[in-house]
Write a structure and sequence with these properties.
Number of helices: 21
Low-confidence stretches: 1-15, 413-419, 561-570
Number of strands: 19
Helix content: 25-40%
Strand content: 5-15%
Structural class: alpha+beta
Mean pLDDT: 92
Length: 570
């Protein structure tokens, strides 16, 4: 551990010595959220203030992906002293939760209860994260940083095709719950493009948070409405559950790959450990500089082994003892690498315990860099599209269904047909395992900020992005690259349709891998690249969705430097 402490101190000194970029960048999954981030930067806010504004705006305009009824992970870097931390705002199981709460009298899992309605919802952490960031890292009050989201909720936003697609997946469940259907549907149907979604109740909830801080959500009138709505519809929340919720700061997972220092999410995210284990395995082959013909095979084999360990060992660190040091050690990487045949796929059945786990795909991500060099990578979720589809009346808050990220019954499939282990079993106050992987990569001359939604494929997508960054590719390449994935079980390479006829896919098939198309493009990566050697900043939003990335000199920075014009790059 001493070398880790020394290395951390070294990078703290380096961070303080690095010249500030002088310009800011925001990449998010919706143009209106990116605008909200720059609105706050222009008022003198820092990256942490802007991240709150972006996330709050996403809670309004992406009700299918994230919101005040959900949670997430916030990876932070403070440039003044080099401090790096992860704010864990993952949802928690209510106090009345039990390991068998989704099983019938015969021990069979009742899947509908685990994914739809109030019983599927964990206690949300989003509001607590906003308060924590404002109090400990931001420069502006929540009254300022939440103002763009309050305005969007009050005035509304226009439905577009992405919204319509995701609402279509959940229209039947939304129609079970009148408060949610009244907001997100048009007379029970998926709204037409251009339909205006207004959320006055959500605006009032956000206003209460802005004015009263934590008490505005976890106590008082909003808390009472949340609990009454949940319990009247068969849920188990109590006001004490809400009052007990706290975010936790956790030390990030830190590793190295091809000259880059990789900083990523620790448990209860599995992302940092799984990605670093896989990258460590790759590093055993010519220090990660692998020929183009062999790289897909070794990448899949590394993913396969790391995802197997995810299911075997990982869970909430406050409840489960995990062999983290061993999983990230060079000796373990050597052991795992030694089991890889360069010419032939290893069947998953030969590697050991047949367990796996997966979460919902409809998450969101934001990346922020400010003109001083502070940075945030945050991945946020309510799990399935529109979460549990349940909204307590009078709150405007669509609740998550993250309880399905627990193992409802160890060995029994979740919503995606995969099974989990005892390490991720349900317990009161426990946080479910996640794949959300907000990440920084720090090279001698550049810094990468990235993350994406995508369920269990998040880790492999971010890993591929890190590999692109390590190869010196521009930020657009990270978000545009064609994706493939292996998670140990099912024993197949899942890939985007564009991958299927590629030379990489052919090389995998020649080595015995089963390569299958998932039928559509996936992921929604938001990324920023800061060249610390020359100050150049670029950003990119995944072309698969509707997000926006912007680089500019904030107006507040212009005033401070007497620069008459802001430089803006798209």
């Amino acid at each position: 551990m001493r070398w880790l402490i020394a290395l951390s101190l070294l990078f703290t000194v380096a961070a303080q010595a690095t010249p500030a970029p002088g310009r800011a960048a925001v990449a998010s999954a919706h143009p209106l959220a990116t605008e909200a981030g720059f609105e706050i930067l222009d008022q003198g806010g820092n990256a942490f203030d802007a991240a709150v504004a972006v996330a709050a705006a996403l809670a309004v305009v992406e009700p299918y992906s994230a919101g005040m009824g959900g949670g997430g992970f916030w990876l932070l870097h403070r440039q003044s002293d080099g401090k790096q931390t992860m704010v864990d705002a993952r949802e928690m199981a209510p106090g009345a939760a039990s390991a068998d709460m989704y099983q019938d009298r015969n021990g069979k899992v009742i899947r509908d209860k685990a994914i739809n309605g109030p019983l599927a919802a964990g206690i949300p952490g989003q509001a607590a994260a906003f308060v924590h960031l404002a109090r400990h890292y931001g420069k502006l009050p929540l009254r300022t940083t939440l103002a763009p989201a309050i305005r969007l909720a009050r005035d509304g936003f226009d439905v577009e095709d992405h919204y319509r697609t995701l609402a279509g997946y959940r229209v039947d469940v939304l129609n079970r719950y009148p408060a949610a259907a009244a907001v997100f549907l048009d007379h029970g149907k998926v709204p037409a493009a251009g339909y205006r979604v207004r959320q006055p109740d959500l605006a009032r909830t956000l206003q209460a948070l802005a004015e009263q801080g934590r008490a505005g959500f976890y106590q008082g009138a909003v808390a009472r409405k949340l609990v009454k709505g949940v319990r009247d519809a068969g849920g188990i929340w109590t006001e004490q559950d809400l009052d007990n919720y706290r975010v936790k700061e956790r030390a990030p997972i830190v590793g190295h790959f091809r000259g880059g220092r990789v900083v990523s999410a620790p448990p209860p995210s599995s992302g940092g450990i799984v990605m670093m284990e896989a990258l460590n395995i790759l590093s055993e082959f010519n220090a990660g500089e692998i020929s183009e013909g062999l790289l897909p095979h070794l990448t899949v084999e590394a993913m396969k082994r790391a995802y197997q360990d995810r299911a075997r060992y990982l869970g909430d660190p406050d409840f489960v003892q995990m062999p983290v040091d061993n999983l990230l050690s060079k000796s373990y990487a050597q052991q795992r690498a030694a089991s890889i045949d360069l010419d032939q796929a290893t069947p998953s059945s030969e590697l050991g315990e047949p367990v796996g786990v997966e979460e919902g795909f409809h998450t969101t991500h934001l990346s922020v860099l400010d003109a001083d060099g502070n940075r945030v990578a945050a991945t946020l979720s309510i799990n399935l599209p529109f979460g549990s589809a349940f909204m307590p009346a009078g709150t405007g808050v669509i609740l998550n269904n993250e309880m399905d990220d627990f193992s409802a019954k160890p060995g029994s499939p979740n919503a995606y047909g995969l099974v989990g282990s005892q390490a991720n079993a349900i317990a009161p106050g426990k946080r479910p395992l996640s794949s959300m992987t907000p990440t920084f990569v720090e090279f001698k001359d550049r810094v990468a900020i990235l993350g994406t939604p995508g369920g269990s494929r998040i880790i492999s997508m971010v890993m591929l992005g890190v590999m692109e960054a390590a190869a010196g590719k521009p930020v657009d390449d990270w978000v545009q690259r064609v994706r493939f994935h292996h998670q140990y079980l099912p024993d197949e390479v899942e890939a985007e349709p564009a991958f299927m006829d590629s030379p990489a896919a052919k090389s995998l098939r020649l080595r015995g891998h089963k390569v299958v198309s998932v039928g559509r493009a996936y992921g929604n990566m938001q990324a920023i690249l800061w060249h610390t050697d020359n100050g150049r900043v670029t950003a990119a939003s995944d072309p698969r969705a509707i997000g926006a990335a912007r680089v500019a000199v904030p107006r507040a920075a212009n005033k401070a430097t007497n620069d008459p014009q802001a430089v803006t790059e798209k």
